[in-house]
Amino acid sequence: MVTGTVGLRGRSLTCIRDLSIPELAQVLATAASLKRRWRAGDRPRLLPGRVLALLLEKPSLRTRVSFEVAMRQLGGDAVSLLPQEIGLGERESVVDVARVLSRYVDAIVLRTFAHQSVTDMAAQASVPVINGLSDRSHPCQALADLLTIAEHRGRLRGVRVAFVGDGGNNVAHALLLAAAKSGLHLRIACPPGYEPLPDMLASARADAARTGAELDVVYDPAAAVEGADVVYTDVWTSMGQEAEQHLRRAVFATYRVDAPLVARAMPDAIVMHDLPAHRGEEITDDVLDGPRSVVYDQAENRLHAQKAVLVHLLADSVLG
Ligand code: CP
Ligand code: NVA
Fold first, then answer.
1. What is the pLDDT of residues 243-284, one digit of tens each?
2. In terms of Cα–Cα distance, which of 139, 156, 130 is closest to 32?
3. Distance of CA 238 to the CA centre of its chain
4. How many CB atoms lie within 10 A of CB 290?
5. Considering the chain, what percentage of its residues have pLDDT values greater than 70?
6. What is the pLDDT of residue 85?
């Protein structure tokens, strides 16, 4: 049984912080259930006639396609607007885009630069707004990440995850907050100056005190990966930071996830990357394509996790 009644209906998902500890667990349970049912040939059309708008100010493969496919598989539809078509804050204000789209669609996914645009859109829209990646957070990615870890490790609580790379980027922040709410043991290894934002760490530590999650930020990638069950990395240069690419390549050079680094993890450790990867930069081909890599399971899980989010935000009530 999948239920859509955990109090999320009509709300926005701008950040993992928008979900309480039990709400996060419920969304993950729904995602696992929808995935199981889909694979068994049970394809409930839980969102008939509902339409989702995706506003994408940055490129996307996974986010765009998985949200569009999720809506169609659930009996609804989606319309995507690409960077040149929106002009958010230039052709038209965030306020007006939010208010107009609220008259046409049932929910909005926004992929943008400044996180403030996501919170402004959520404040002005009368339909749920889902953060499809901002400079500060990527909550849909973190939900898919937790689903993937739970599938491969059989649980979340106490699983030791090492994130090696930019501790202050959107993927690291979302993972940090989600880890804290689900009892993971997360070590982030990043260069000095690339730590998570202090307010993100403070939120995560508050949740960790309740769930038993252990959260550490270290500077030595080898120490972070030692004994880990999961080794996770993301690009050194995120979208919008291209002017810093040269500098970042130098700063992060010793944070590459390669075979010697992964050898420090548990023998059955899995390797994760949200993709797209800059192959040969933050991760080597042999690791990304190797037997421990679960990156395509992780990419697939964007679909199942987002279906769960859409069902909880938009579906009427208990779903059979
Ligand atoms: N991981 C992720 O969000 O991929 P896209 O940028 O392709 O959407
Ligand atoms: N940190 C990356 C994630 C891409 C999905 C970026 O923002 O470009």
1. 999 999 999 999 999 999 999 999 999 999 999 999 999 999
2. 156
3. 14
4. 12
5. 97
6. 84
DSSP lists the bridge partners of residue 161 as 186, 230
Among 171, 232, 302, 309, name the best residue to mutate to test ligand 1's pocket (greatest count of ligand atoms within 8 A of Cβ). 302
Mutual angle of helices 94-104 and 115-124, in 10-degree steps? 50
| Alpha carbons 312 and 205: distance in angstroms, whole number | 26
Q: Which residue has the tokens 């030692």?
A: 226
Cβ–ligand 1 contact at 294 (below 6 Å): no
- Closest Cα to atom 4 of ligand 1: 62
How many CB atoms sit inside 10 A of residue 275's CB? 16
Residue whose CB lies within 8 A of the most ligand 1 atoms, among 63, 66, 147, for a mutation test: 63
Alpha-carbon separation of residue 181 from 20, 132, 186 (angstroms)? 8, 20, 12
CA separation for the pair 162, 130 (Å, rounded): 27
Ligand 1 atom nearest the C-alpha of 274 is 1
Q: How many helices (H) and strands (E) does the chain have?
A: 13, 9
Radius of gyration in angstroms for the set of CA atoms belonging to the chain, rounded to a whole number: 19
Closest residue to atom 6 of ligand 1, CA basis: 60
Angle at 211 (CA atoms; ends 210, 217), nearest 5 degrees: 100
Query: For residue range 168-202, what is the model confidence (pLDDT) as tens digits?
Result: 999 999 999 999 999 999 999 999 999 999 999 99
Going by pLDDT thresholds of 50, 70 and 90, the confidence category of residue 222 is very high
pLDDT band with cut points at 50, 70 and 90 for residue 4: very low
Ligand nearest to the CA of 170: 2
What are the structure tokens assigned to 283, written together? 């991760």
Interatomic CA distance for residues 124 and 136, integer angstroms: 20
3-state secondary structure of 317: coil
Q: At what angle do helices 62-73 and 295-314 cross, to 10 degrees?
A: 50
pTM: 0.97
Mean pLDDT of 135-153: 98
Instruction: Give the number of the atom of ligand 1 that is nearest the alpha carbon of residue 64.
Output: 8
